[in-house]
Amino acid sequence: IADIKGGPDDGLSRVGQTLVVMGWVRTLRAQSSVTFIEVNDGSCLSNMQCVMDSEADGYDQVESGLISTGASIWVQGILVASQGSKQKVELKVDKLVVVGKCDLSFPIQKKRVSREFLRTKAHLRPRTNTFGAVARVRNALAYATHKFFQENGFVWVSSPIITASDCEGAGEQFCVTTLIPSSQEADQSPVAAIPKTENGLVDWSKDFFGKPAFLTVSGQLNGETYATALSDVYTFGPTFRAENSNTSRHLAEFWMIEPELAFADLNDDMACATAYLQYVVRHVLEYCKEDMDFFNTWIEKGIIDRLTAVVEKDFVQLTYTEAIELLLRAKRKFEFPVKWGCDLQSEHERYITEEAYNGCPVIVRDYPKEIKAFYMRQNDDGKTVAAMDMLVPRVGELIGGSQREERLDYVENRLDELKLNRDSYWWYLDLRRYGSVPHAGFGLGFERLVQFATGIDNIRDAIPFPRTPGSAEF
Ligand code: 4AD
Ligand code: MG
């Protein structure tokens, strides 16, 4: 359908051609002499209106009620100019075949259904306008991501999903253990099948990896190893966090894009993050027009203007210290009190970008070292690190990044101060022993980018199958 309707003349130049459309029935409207069937194949938001009279081959299926919302059909007909005002062209049906009829219990009938309800039907929700549009825009953002980095000479690196190290040191990892295969106990209880010592603790020496292993929280440390060999690299893959936060911005499984730049400092990092965000936003505005118009009308009024401004304007830059001063001057009260040294909460981040800077993205830099991860480069003041967060309206923190500490003694001291085991970072420390270079990178949460670009307010609707506390269905 996108192929037919997506052209500059909305399909008019193809009037007279015989075409085949395959898709799912959205609505059926039977009048005395003709039946209108709206079909969607997911290639675009638009349906193809199929007009069928009683002469057409397969009309008996209309009469017998076989064609209903949700059914899959194959239709052949001639493209004609439409009499209706909603579309330029429609298909005059010669032949229609019901490929798969739809049970009347199909839960997504035409009436508008809530997004909460649709989360319980994650296997069927891509059949709706909203989730079809989100899926296409998500796809376009992924494509534009690779395109941006490839055009700028970055090499895509696959970082591992199973790892022994905790990049962020926040203790939010999911542990991976082995179930002893073919054990009878496994049939009764998966937990019973985990190898255990005599006193009932997990026996890691008998476990698959011989020691505790986890799902990765970030591919950064692995990315650094490749950046210190291939120069500019990026990862793009799933990451996992056992954060017990039921918010509209957190998932237990989310995708992250993590570029790592060699011979680069924090300014290079911020410039890269800005250019990247502007590039992908420009891409969806240009290539996802129909879906973006839909979001603009139904999901967030004015989103197109908001995104256009992002592409055209410079982003604001503030130090953390300036951000704290700004928050202290704010006329309104925050739930979490503000003072130098505190972590910025979502309400603070949103105030800064939405109210203080009127919707413009803001990059906050030079955070207190106490609230940031061990690998960030210490600034000369001894109190702050060369970290940066990019804050955007509605979402808050979209990007977190930093210049990395390239000096061996500084990283070792920081690991000791944070009581992290130097031995388990031996390979990371090696990078500082063998030809260390200044380098920097950032991580962008892909689902937060989808939220930002579509206006969808809950992150659970920005990923096909959300994983959140208490929920791993589908
Ligand atoms: O700020 P974070 O924790 O930074 C890192 O992981 C660094 N290692 C990245 C780097 O420098 N290479 O996470 C980066 C981004 C956040 O800004 C946010 O957009 C997203 O990842 N994010 C989440 N998105 C969804 N659900 C969660 N639970 C998220 N946690 C972080
Ligand atoms: Mg962060």
Structural write-up:
The protein is an alpha+beta fold and 474 residues long. It folds into three domains: 99 residues, Nucleic acid-binding proteins (OB fold (Dihydrolipoamide Acetyltransferase, E2P), Beta Barrel); 272 residues, BirA Bifunctional Protein, domain 2, CATH 3.30.930.10; 43 residues, no CATH class. The protein has 14 helices and 16 strands. Strand 14 and strand 15 form a beta hairpin. The longest helix has 23 residues. It is globular. The two termini are 29 Å apart. The model has no long low-confidence stretch (mean pLDDT 94). Magnesium ion binds next to strand 15.
Order of helices and strands: HEEEHEEHHEEEHEHEEHHHEHHEEEHHEH
Taking Cα atoms only, what radius of gyration do you get, to the nearest Å? 27 Å
Q: What is the helix content?
A: 25-40%
Look at the structure and give the CATH class of the largest domain: Alpha Beta
Shape: globular
Number of helices: 14
Number of strands: 16
Name the structural class.
alpha+beta
Protein name: asparagine--tRNA ligase
GO molecular function: asparagine-tRNA ligase activity; ATP binding
Organism: Rubroshorea leprosula
Enzyme class: ligase
